[in-house]
Amino acid sequence: MTTETDRTAAPRRSMRTVLRPTSKVLPEHARAHNRSLVLQHLFHDGPTSRADLARASGLTRVTISDLVSVLIAEGLVEERGIRPGQRVGKPAILVGMRTSAYQIVSVDLTDASQLRGAVMALTGEAVVHAALPIDGRTGEDLVDFVTRFVRRLTASATQPVLGVGLGSPGVIDATGHVIEAPNRGWYQVPLAAELSDRLGLPVHVANDANIAALAEFTFGGAEGSGFMVVTVGAGVGAGVVVDGSPVRGHGYAAGEIGHVTVDPDSDRTCGCGRVGCLETVVSVPALRRATAGLGREGSDAALASAGRVLGGALAPVVSALNLAEVILSGPAELLDGPFREGALEVVRARTMPVVHADLSVRMAALDEDVVLAGAAVLVLSGQLGVS
Hints:
Elements: E1 2-5, H1 30-45, E2 48-49, H2 50-57, H3 61-73, E3 77-82, E4 93-97, E5 103-108, E6 114-121, E7 126-133, H4 139-155, E8 161-168, E9 171-172, E10 178-181, E11 186-189, H5 191-199, E12 203-207, H6 208-218, E13 226-232, E14 236-242, E15 245-246, H7 279-282, H8 284-291, H9 296-321, E16 325-329, H10 332-335, H11 338-349, H12 353-356, E17 360-363, H13 370-384
Parallel strand pairs: 5-8, 8-12, 13-16, 16-17
Antiparallel strand pairs: 1-7, 2-4, 3-4, 5-6, 6-7, 9-10, 10-11, 13-14, 14-15
Helix pairs in contact: 2-3, 4-5, 6-13, 9-11
């Protein structure tokens, strides 16, 4: 495994957007909910006085004082001194989240050829990067390999590890149970629970495209009213956020566009066992095969053709959900150019003007780290209630 300390990272874009709650807060959850409100505010807005926290959250000052005391004792929050420039009245002591006191281990399984991982700051920057070739591992062998990889990443952390986040292709439920991930040889695998038991750390597992959407929403400035992140790697997946809420679907399979049949007469067999699936045309291996040995003009034509196939699959989704953005995540040399333009061309041709008038198709703001950053958001949300 190779690691390297990241050069000083440019600050992420605005982190003021937050995910809308998707379930009711029951009375017995009130304290955890209130704790999340405080941490959420401090994470996005920075150091704040207790009085301002009370006003922003709608909680009483007594409740805020109690919560802040507990969070200070836990090492998650610290006092930062008085507000600069304050001269009248009793000085307001600011409290801030100790974002540098903990780190997160993130793992990206999007690429079939290698594991990518990072030790992440709580604010989304990678402190250490790592990669290892998968060498064809699948099933239980791959679970063992991921376990060893995470252990080595954890050992390279310079602060206590808050938790582990992992993004994988496939259908994965809210508990991190992999229902099916054909390209990884995983069927009904309780991956989060198994890894947590082995590692002795909280582990959160979700679909790679879904957490890429979380990353673009939290760190990348995505339009929360409606957007889709399309991940192009060993396969093709999508994560969708509408009206500030992630779309998961009845069977946790929302966004599984990679196995939509786009060419029923094809002789190309997909990893799921069927023929003519979208990922037989649009995945990274498929795009590399389509452009192999071609000159610039031929390669551009092949990529544009594949982009138009993707556009045909996306048009009904974009129209049904009235999305503002489609964000592509994958190798820029393949996706950013004729491929992206071909996809946008077909979506515009197959939807009403009111749907596509303001639609943009762009590359992910977080580039190749989008799934790693999303895995960090997964841990922040699961452990601290911060998104």
